[in-house]
Amino acid sequence: MKIKVIVPPKYGAISKFSEGVAVIRLGDKETGLFGLIDKKGIEIVPPKFGNINPSWIDDVSNPFPEDLLAVMVGDKDNGKWGFIDRTGREIIPLQYDYADHFYQGLAKVRLGDKDNGKWGFIDKTGREIVPPKYDGLKHFYDENFAAVKLVNKWGFIDKIGKEIVPPKYDDVDIFRGGFARVKLDDKYGCIDETGLEIVPPKYDWVSTFHRNIKGLIPVRLEGKNGFIDKTGKEVVPPKYDDVDSFREGFAKVKLGDKYGCIDETGKEILPPIYEDIGSFSGGLARVKAKKPSIKIGRKEIALVPINGGWEEINLSSDEDKWQSKCGFVNDSGKEISPIKYTRVEPFQEGMALVYFNHFGFIDKTGVEVVPRQYDGARSFSDGLAAVRLGDYKKGKWGFIDKSGRKIVPLKFDEVSSFSDGWAAVRLGSKWGLIDTLGREIVPPSYDAIYPPDYGSELCRFFDGLAVVRLGDKKTGKWGLIDITGNEIVPPKYDDVNFIREGLAAVKLGNKWGYVDRVGKETVPPRYDHAYCFYNGIATVKLDGKNCQIDKTGKEIVPPKYDEIDNFYDYEDLAEVRIGDENTGKCGLFDKKIGKEVLPCQYDEIYDCSEGMAKVFIGERVPYDDYIPEDYYLVGEWGIISIEP
Question: Which one is predicted more confidently, 452 or 260?
């Protein structure tokens, strides 16, 4: 890469390049002047404009919206606005008191001051499509209508300036999907593109209204919520204390402190009797409710309807007495399982884990296919579920299928769930691997198999490899096994991490290196730390400094930098920094030739497109003393070119 300093840092701001031209600002945000510069560093237009639009040139992706830039000459209160192109040629004379940037071929302009001036629209030739006569206006955005204000009332015009809706509303939203929300005398309604009031302004609130919306539209009146359809018809009168928007054809409603559910016709599928209702998924939703209880002698029981009869739930403790019960309902409003469980999990592989005193499983019809008999259980994975009999410390784990049949006997002290046909199992203090038939692929012989030792319920192989350990966490040794259980790397390392692109980082003593899929040390342990490979390159640390190596161990970037990062989309360039993030200096390093091509003398470097980048010298100023990482830059910017 060939790096050339085009302009040394001297500007207060520089935009991205657009077709070979960038906007520059000389000076600070308050008093600085704007101009144009090309890729050679030549000022096409010397800094002379007091303001531009869009003004946030540090962030905007294209400083020339629709090929024109709004510019202003004079002071910010009394200057005149017009438009120039990328050559600096004045396309629209500087005659307006304000001009917004172009969008969909039109730009907002104002004649007069911001309090009493009049607004209109011009096209890219400068022709006044809508003469400045309105007190305010909102842009067309993605619709064919713009909101206009006249004597404190709002209406709408089309793109040729014709008034579709005369100014008569107190406020309006922009059109979305053919409809716009309007407000009159503190009441909301909705109009269509012809100006017809689909919903007269009579509600205290109307939700977003457009033709592509799914389901009904929430409205509010006198503190109560209801729903209307897209024609404005009131399908559900305002009677609920709260409502949600529709998801998968259903909306949750609240009456008092209870929840119910309606469908898209407004029919109450679930009456508001539940403490909570989850979202529908696959036609089912979890519900929570408290069941009434009665006393029979010294016992207090809750009666739960099931199969045309009643089941008694003994409330044996205060916890049981006050604990809400859970179950499932279908999209017809039917309770497919009795609301008797203290815990239910989402359906996985057609089965849901349920709990009341013991764990069991129900299918999507609500039938307890696996009766509640287990002291511990996990959801189904790979067609099997882990179950436990006995307490957490001394109980034994095994696996059952969806019929409840024991596929793996309950003999293990701990297990992971299955993933990709494998599960980790522990006997005593040793871990092994089994397949879905219960066959031992790796006999329990290791003190850890990653990731179960790290708290995961799944045993996953990474890039076809899993990490194993012999011994305790502090002094044990680590190795690697493959998916057949073969020891690729015998446990001899002090740590193993970051398996990616066929290589794993390994630690011996206090030094890190890498091994490949057959256990060969491709990079002997010599680094203080090592990270994963990405596109054939890994960052490592040596004597407190970062460097980068390839898969053979060859140093691509020498160990002399405190930070190394990829530089945007340039594969062969790295941004390097000497010193810390706040006070250090950064430059660019060419990984292909192994050379620093831009010295570390800048505080920041940013890509600004089209083979150009901007460099900064200055300071970071926090917006808030309590959040130092949220900052803005105060200093000067320059320009560099990047050539292959």
Answer: 260
Rounded CA-CA distance 614/8 in Å is 9
Tokens of 338: 């009795």
How would you classify the pairing of strands 612-624 and 627-643? Answer: antiparallel
Asked if residue 143 has pLDDT above 80, the reply is: no
Is the preceding peptide bond at 451 cis, omega within 30 degrees of 0?
A: yes
pLDDT at 164: 92
d(CA 412, CA 425): 6
User: Kind of pairing, strands 487-493 and 187-192?
Assistant: unpaired
- If you average pLDDT over residues 350-375, what whole number do you get? 95
In the predicted model, what is the mean pLDDT of the chain? 89
What's the Cα-to-Cα distance from 507 to each of 92, 173, 454, 457, 479, rounded to whole Å?
67, 61, 18, 26, 10
> Alpha-carbon distance 298 to 304, whole Å?
19
Residues paired with residue 607 on neighbouring β-strands, in sequence order = 613
Cα 539 from Cα 559, distance rounded (Å)? 10
Burial of 472 (0-12, 13-18, 19+ CB in 10 A): exposed
Q: How far apart are CA 363 and CA 369, in angstroms?
A: 6
Q: What is the dihedral of CA 563, 569, 573, 575, to 10 degrees?
A: -20
The pLDDT of 149-157, averaged and rounded, is: 95
Rg (CA), the chain: 34
- The pair of structure tokens assigned to 638 is 């320059």
Return d(Cα 562, Cα 560) in angstroms, integer. Answer: 7
For 286-341, give the DSSP string: EEEEPPPEEEETTEEEEEEEETTEEEEEE--SHHHHH--EEEEEETTS-BSS-S-B
Separation CA 433–CA 477 (nearest Å)? 19
Q: Which residue has the tokens 């001036």?
A: 117
- Any residues with CB less than 8 A from the CB of 5 and at least 6 apart, and which? 615, 638, 639, 640
- What is the pTM for the complete model shown? 0.79
- The number of angstroms, rounded, from the C-alpha of 223 to the middle of its chain's C-alpha atoms is 33
Quote the CA–CA distance of 99 and 111 in Å, as a whole number. 9
CA distance 359 to 390: 12
Burial of residue 565 (CB within 10 Å: 0-12, 13-18, 19+) is middle
Give the integer Cα–Cα distance in Å for 181 and 509. Answer: 68
Tokens found for residue 234: 């009131």
What distances in angstroms separate CA 287 from CA 147, 244, 364, one per listed residue?
45, 16, 14
14 touches 613 (CB < 8 A): no
The residues with which 326 forms a beta bridge, in sequence order, are 288, 341
Quote the percentage of the chain above a pLDDT of 70: 92
Residue 319 phi, psi (nearest 5): -65, -45
CA distances from 362 to 282, 283, 351 (A): 15, 15, 6
